[in-house]
């Protein structure tokens, strides 16, 4: 998704802007650009299609220099990736970078064209540049002009704006798309993500929806919108320290961030468990002061998320219903937000998100919030990014402590979400009268989970070999039953997003109701076979595949009784209890997707068309 960096400093800010853009590359983008005020009245910009490296090459032959600037990585929504559509967009003396979508841009464009403005791009953003320019003539001041312009915008935006005639100042605005202010020694900065600014600061102000910020070299003032008073007033936003390591330290010995993050999972899961396990139960107080009451009052759960986070939610439904006896409904956020949801009294809204900035998930939270007094007991988020919008807008948050995830394909964020969800299921069990023996057994097993995940990673070399064979296929079917069904879905998602091989997941029992028609020697089938009450049923489903000449790759418990045979490859996964099997079986599927993608020479960390944090609808 698009990335913003803006800076006002005491020295040339171009290196800071370019470094910020490189740090935002992981979000996914297709073009990049920068604009600087080189001297009062002299605004210059450079834009390139493709990677930030292309922009850097151009700047090395035609350098820009200035103390005030804005920069952007664009992920195309309106208008194809091209130099004209790349940001910053300029109108007269101002330059604008924008994340989000301006929904009423057609109407605004007509209005501006009628007033004589000329458009040079197909973007929705260009209307923002012209609107601000128009308002600048009326107000004479950039802050007032941005304020008047954003009042006309419908949709979502984070903006960075500079004025060539008044350098030394950057204006930011936030409504529905994230924006932070970085507080540095040598200046003030804006970023759509704190990661963009870690080379200059680890102190941030997290702007709230409706905020405008005016940053200079020595300070910043945030102006919030007072709905009741219908005017702006200065607001206090407490600085927060960024707690994670700086991920730009690199990939270490790994070829890709994704592989590094796959290997980080034993430690990440250990971090997610840290301080949350007692000797034979989960420490609910470690979830936060209100957790006991909120979870105790919960009668059912609406679990809402997107993509990989949604798959984590589907696994959690099995755990929460079996371990705590609490009904749990799981739904993709883009549907939930537009549905007339029936939430009976005592409903907990549980949102899951790695980034905490996914537009659909945030909208679902707000949709539920609007009805909170009547039916919801509250909103709990499980999230990886402290200070994110989702965390700030929830009553309670359980952080996953995965550390920054750079690869677009989610790996450690998923397994740490599952870990947090298992802790939640056990906490609900404790509060809702489940017997303590199973709880104690699972708490004990959770302590060994990081070791178990380390053992699963030892399959890497075997899977890399199998992946060579796999990389030639065009379609794949993934099968699982029970809580492994969502893991099959996650395996299919991983494969398609980074290798571009079409992959579908089915509950194995559904095979005979349709997808069996697809099975032949050109359709490999990946199946998950842990030791659980459904193993025999799954074996029958696998026979249905073999009888039709299908090629099976089965990840199985060593005691499953499944053995390699003609058309069937079996990979033994470390033995584990059925409750933790979803976590353990995830790792071989991640490795499979990774090695297939490498064999197909795709861009593993930044797959085509995808963005890390989907901040638009
Ligand atoms: C997963 O590999 C994807 N990149 C994607 O499905 C992602 O999980 C989804 O966009 C949700 O993101 P979130 O967890 O940050 O809300």
UniProtKB/TrEMBL annotation:
<feature type="active site" description="For Fru-6P isomerization activity">
    <location>
        <position position="612"/>
    </location>
</feature>
<dbReference type="GO" id="GO:0006002">
    <property type="term" value="P:fructose 6-phosphate metabolic process"/>
</dbReference>
<feature type="domain" description="SIS">
    <location>
        <begin position="466"/>
        <end position="607"/>
    </location>
</feature>
<dbReference type="InterPro" id="IPR029055">
    <property type="entry name" value="Ntn_hydrolases_N"/>
</dbReference>
<dbReference type="InterPro" id="IPR005855">
    <property type="entry name" value="GFAT"/>
</dbReference>
<feature type="active site" description="Nucleophile; for GATase activity">
    <location>
        <position position="2"/>
    </location>
</feature>
<dbReference type="GO" id="GO:0006047">
    <property type="term" value="P:UDP-N-acetylglucosamine metabolic process"/>
</dbReference>
<dbReference type="InterPro" id="IPR035466">
    <property type="entry name" value="GlmS/AgaS_SIS"/>
</dbReference>
<dbReference type="GO" id="GO:0097367">
    <property type="term" value="F:carbohydrate derivative binding"/>
</dbReference>
<dbReference type="InterPro" id="IPR047084">
    <property type="entry name" value="GFAT_N"/>
</dbReference>
<keyword id="KW-0808">Transferase</keyword>
<dbReference type="GO" id="GO:0005829">
    <property type="term" value="C:cytosol"/>
</dbReference>
<keyword id="KW-0677">Repeat</keyword>
<keyword id="KW-0963">Cytoplasm</keyword>
<comment type="function">
    <text>Catalyzes the first step in hexosamine metabolism, converting fructose-6P into glucosamine-6P using glutamine as a nitrogen source.</text>
</comment>
<feature type="domain" description="Glutamine amidotransferase type-2">
    <location>
        <begin position="2"/>
        <end position="218"/>
    </location>
</feature>
<comment type="subunit">
    <text>Homodimer.</text>
</comment>
<dbReference type="GO" id="GO:0006487">
    <property type="term" value="P:protein N-linked glycosylation"/>
</dbReference>
<dbReference type="Pfam" id="PF01380">
    <property type="entry name" value="SIS"/>
</dbReference>
<feature type="domain" description="SIS">
    <location>
        <begin position="291"/>
        <end position="437"/>
    </location>
</feature>
<dbReference type="Pfam" id="PF13522">
    <property type="entry name" value="GATase_6"/>
</dbReference>
<dbReference type="GO" id="GO:0046349">
    <property type="term" value="P:amino sugar biosynthetic process"/>
</dbReference>
<dbReference type="GO" id="GO:0005975">
    <property type="term" value="P:carbohydrate metabolic process"/>
</dbReference>
<protein>
    <recommendedName>
        <fullName>Glutamine--fructose-6-phosphate aminotransferase [isomerizing]</fullName>
        <ecNumber>2.6.1.16</ecNumber>
    </recommendedName>
</protein>
<dbReference type="GO" id="GO:0004360">
    <property type="term" value="F:glutamine-fructose-6-phosphate transaminase (isomerizing) activity"/>
</dbReference>
<keyword id="KW-0315">Glutamine amidotransferase</keyword>
<dbReference type="InterPro" id="IPR046348">
    <property type="entry name" value="SIS_dom_sf"/>
</dbReference>
<dbReference type="InterPro" id="IPR017932">
    <property type="entry name" value="GATase_2_dom"/>
</dbReference>
<dbReference type="InterPro" id="IPR001347">
    <property type="entry name" value="SIS_dom"/>
</dbReference>
<dbReference type="InterPro" id="IPR035490">
    <property type="entry name" value="GlmS/FrlB_SIS"/>
</dbReference>
<keyword id="KW-0032">Aminotransferase</keyword>
């Amino acid at each position: 998704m698009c990335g913003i960096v803006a800076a006002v400093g005491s020295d040339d800010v171009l290196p800071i802007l370019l470094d910020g853009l490189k740090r935002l590359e992981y979000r996914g983008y297709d073009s990049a650009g920068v604009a600087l005020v080189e001297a009062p009245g002299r605004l210059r910009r450079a834009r390139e299609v493709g990677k930030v490296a292309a922009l850097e090459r151009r700047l090395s032959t035609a350098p820009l220099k200035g103390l005030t600037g804005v920069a952007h990585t664009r992920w195309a929504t309106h208008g194809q990736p091209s130099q004209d559509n790349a940001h910053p967009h300029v109108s007269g003396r101002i330059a604008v970078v924008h994340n989000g979508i301006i929904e009423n841009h057609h109407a605004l464009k007509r209005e501006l064209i009628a007033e004589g403005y000329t458009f040079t791009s197909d973007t929705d953003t260009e209307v923002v540049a012209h609107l601000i320019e128009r308002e600048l003539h009326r107000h004479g001041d950039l802050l007032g002009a941005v304020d008047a312009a954003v009042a006309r915008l419908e949709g979502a935006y984070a903006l960075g704006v500079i004025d060539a005639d008044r350098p030394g100042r950057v204006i930011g605005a936030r409504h529905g798309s994230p924006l932070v202010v970085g507080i540095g020694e040598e200046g003030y900065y804006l970023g759509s993500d704190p990661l963009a600014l870690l080379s200059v600061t680890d102190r941030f102000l997290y702007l709230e929806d409706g905020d405008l910020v005016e940053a200079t070299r020595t300070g910043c003032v945030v102006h919030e919108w007072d709905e009741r008073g219908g005017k702006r007033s200065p607001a206090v936003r407490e600085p927060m320290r960024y707690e994670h390591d700086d991920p730009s330290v690199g990939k270490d010995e790994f070829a890709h961030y994704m592989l590094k993050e796959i290997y980080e999972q034993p430690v990440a899961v250990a971090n997610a468990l840290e301080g949350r396990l007692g000797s034979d139960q989960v420490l609910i107080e470690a979830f936060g002061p209100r957790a006991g009451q909120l979870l105790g009052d919960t009668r059912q759960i609406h679990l809402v998320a997107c993509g990989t986070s949604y798959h984590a939610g589907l696994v959690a439904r099995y755990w929460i219903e079996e371990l705590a006896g609490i009904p749990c409904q799981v739904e993709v956020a883009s549907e939930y937000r537009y549905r007339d949801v029936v939430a009976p009294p005592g409903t907990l809204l549980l949102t899951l998100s790695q980034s905490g900035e996914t537009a659909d998930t945030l909208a679902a939270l707000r949709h539920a919030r609007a009805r909170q007094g009547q039916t919801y007991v509250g909103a709990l988020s499980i999230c990886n990014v402290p200070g994110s919008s989702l965390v700030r807008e929830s009553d309670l948050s359980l952080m996953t402590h995965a550390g920054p995830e750079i690869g677009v394909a989610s790996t450690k964020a998923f397994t740490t979400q599952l870990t947090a969800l298992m802790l939640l299921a056990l906490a609900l069990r404790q509060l809702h009268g489940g017997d303590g023996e199973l709880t104690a057994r699972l708490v004990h097993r959770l302590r060994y989970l990081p070791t178990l995940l380390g053992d699963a990673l030892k399959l890497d070399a075997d899977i890399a070999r199998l992946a060579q064979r796999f990389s030639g296929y065009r379609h794949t079917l993934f099968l699982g039953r029970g809580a492994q069904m969502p893991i099959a879905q996650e395996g299919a998602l991983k494969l398609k997003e980074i290798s571009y091989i079409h992959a579908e997941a089915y509950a194995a029992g559904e095979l005979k109701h349709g997808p069996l028609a697809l099975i032949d020697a050109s359709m490999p089938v990946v199946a998950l076979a842990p030791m659980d009450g459904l193993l025999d049923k799954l074996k029958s489903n696998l026979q249905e595949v073999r009888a039709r000449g299908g090629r099976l790759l089965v990840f199985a418990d060593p005691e499953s009784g499944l053995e390699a045979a003609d058309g069937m490859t079996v990979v033994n996964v470390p033995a584990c209890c059925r409750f933790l099997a979803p976590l353990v079986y995830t790792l071989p599927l991640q490795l499979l997707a990774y090695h297939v993608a490498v064999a197909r020479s795709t861009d593993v960390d930044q797959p085509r068309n995808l963005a890390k944090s989907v901040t638009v609808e």
